Amino acid sequence: MSLERINPAGLSPATGFSHAVTAAGGRLVLLAGQTALDRDGEVVGVTLPEQFETALGNLLTALAAAGGAPGDLARVTVYATDVAAYRAHAGEIGRVWRRLAGRDYPAMAVIGVVRLWDEQALVELDGIAVLP
Question: Which of 7, 26, 88, 107 could form a disulfide with 130 if both were Cys (CB 3.0 to 4.6 A apart)?
């Protein structure tokens, strides 16, 4: 299996994401949306970066259980209840991403939503991975 991250020179610089990712061979893993829920089903963290860290950790835990690693992520969608706050904390969120998932970025999108399933949740991540 191989993932190729493509960032054409004709597009704005990709910072914290890749414009396109191709996948060849392998097994497709569809990852359900993850929020900042702990083992007991309680939302933890009060700030968006705190919740992002837990949600990303949960997504990576599900991926690991399927036999994958962060570098196998081909696509991640971020659903945020406050896109302005997400942008304001982009640097901190980027540091969390690099610490937990490394510097190989999947194709990504951030989508503003009115609310998430858990009312206290500020952010949710889902993803698609391709495993060897």
Answer: 26
DSSP 3-state assignment of 18? strand
pLDDT confidence of residue 60: 97
Would you give the DSSP letter of residue 70? Answer: G
How far apart, in whole angstroms, are the C-alpha atoms of residue 23 and residue 60? 19
pTM of the model: 0.89
What tokens were used for 48? 């968006």
Beta strands 73-80 and 123-131: pairing type? antiparallel
> Concatenated DSSP letters for 19-52?
SEEEEESSEEEEEEEE-SB-TTS-B--SSHHHHH
Mean pLDDT of 51-70: 96
